[in-house]
Amino acid sequence: MSVLVWTARGTAKWLDGLDERLEVLEIPADPLADPRLDEVKVLIPPLMRNLQDEAYDLRALMAATGSLEFVQAQTAGVDGIVHAVPHGVLLSSVRGAYDELMAELLVAGILTSYKSIPHYVRAQDEASWRPEEVRVVQGAKVLYVGYGSIAQCVERYLAPFGVESLKVARTARDGVDALEALPRLLPLADIVVVLTPLTSATRNLVDERFLASMKPGALLVNGARGACVDTDALIAAARERGIRAFLDVTEPEPLPDGHPLWSAPGVFITPHIGSLVADNNERCFRVIRENLTRWVEGKPVLNRVEHGY
User: Fold this and answer.
1) Phi then psi for 245, rounded to 5 degrees?
2) Could you report the per-residue pLDDT of 280-303, keeping only the tens digit for each?
3) How confident is the model at residue 28 (pLDDT cuts 50, 70, 90)?
4) What does the alpha-carbon distance between residue 19 and residue 26 come to, in Å, rounded to a whole number?
5) Which of 70, 96, 303, 309 fits 197 for a cystine, CB–CB 3.0-4.6 Å?
């Protein structure tokens, strides 16, 4: 007997050739009225940015699937769907699928800021020769706030620059301090890379006090979620203490036209493009295929989400 898997629209092709015990169908337009709703055991929800195009509420859909056992996210962070997953239903992410993509972008952002590339782009647009002093990454102290697989990849990519790594995470371990060490470590760091999941504990983690603890002129890099940073506090720190920032995520997002963050001094923004590459789906569904195979065979899945992330 086959197991019914509902997957987001437009994604079934990435699951061709799976174990014959898995029957993969795309989520119907009106899933709550579908006669097979009670048969669904595995759900692969749409990306959060695509949910607004759907005619159903994700929480209601999950609550209505009486046989649901496993929810597989298409993202590394699950803050957008974890609230909707019923108690007792397994939730897994694709953590690791985008590590290299994110690391490349964050390193590019660091170099862009240190070498004042936005200044020179504007100068070239104006056909103006305006040299200014730039900074050197070599020997910098880099503090990773959230030391998971992406942070480890960034650390490897920065190693040739001879930087010194400082690390904090939710749980202390060998070579990694707990978040409580931030007041001690922030004043030492030239570059602070935020890569924590978004939870109640990390929402607005980078607040006025956090930013005030950073060196004047230090660089904040946010590759986590926009809501991990207090936007108003960052704008104030940029204006008053010369804190610089490279942000691939913002709060709010998309960042509205005319928002003061766009023009904050020393802030460089990309519009959440960390995983926006041609083979995005291939990378994502490589992990999903592996997890579906593991699940149907009764083996532990990869990236099981516990304690909300």
Assistant:
1) -155, 140
2) 899 999 999 999 999 999 999 999
3) very high
4) 17
5) 309
Check pLDDT > 90 for residue 14: yes
Together in a domain, 191 and 240: yes
151 and 260 within one domain: yes
45 in a domain, yes or no?
yes
Order of all β-strands in the sheet with 219-222: 177-178, 164-169, 141-145, 191-194, 219-222, 244-247, 267-269
Q: Do residue 66 and residue 12 come from a single domain?
A: yes
| Position 301 in a domain | no
Residue 306 lies in a domain: no
Question: Could you say which DSSP state residue 169 is in?
Answer: E
> Could you write out the DSSP letters of every residue in 216-265?
TT-EEEE-S-GGGB-HHHHHHHHHHH--EEEESS-SSSSPPTT-GGGGST
Backbone angles phi, psi at 269, to 5 degrees: -125, 135
305 assigned to some structural domain: no
Within this chain, do residues 129 and 265 fall inside the same structural domain, yes or no? yes
Token pair 């595995």 in the structure block, residue:
42
Tell me the whole-structure pTM to 2 decimals. Answer: 0.91
Q: How far apart are CA 119 and CA 248, in angstroms?
A: 18
Task: Write the CATH number for 168.
Answer: 3.40.50.720
- Side chain identity at 106, as an amino acid letter? L
For residue 184, the enclosing domain spans 99-269
Tokens at 113, concatenated: 């800021």
65-71-75 Cα angle (round to 5): 140
The DSSP output letter for 33 is G
Burial of 281 (0-12, 13-18, 19+ CB in 10 A): middle
